Amino acid sequence: MKIHESLVPDEILKRFAHSYGNSLMNYAANNCTVDQILSLVSLLWPKIAEDEGHFFIAEFYTGNLSTLKDQFNGSKKHIERWVNAWSLGQLVKFSSELEDEEVLSSFAYVLKHFWESRLKSEFPENKFMVEIADNIEGESGLSITFYETMPEY
Asked: 52-75, pLDDT tens digit by residue?
């Protein structure tokens, strides 16, 4: 028998403040309600807004494209990068785990993986960069964003 590991190894449980289970799946089953799991899916596989060929996490976009074009001299990459930037610490309810770099990095990796999959699934002809770095576009701490890499307008 061969086990194909999950995106996040169960060993990360050792870094959690409270470990209620012997695997991540067991932890989720013991701690998460169905409504929590379903809402988490919307974070991992978010609604995407497309406006005049610009792509945004719908939750972050206010429909002000003309103002953004003025602000960023029409640079599609910079508009998308700025709108889609979000501090990982602000995306989820604060917990002591967010102070643990390994846990936060694992969260960033998972989010990046799912956002890349979401964009590729919805827009297979487009190329996107999902970026993780500190203080992207003025966000605080480890942050995530995405933007289309081709074509540049």
From this structure: 999 999 999 999 999 999 999 999
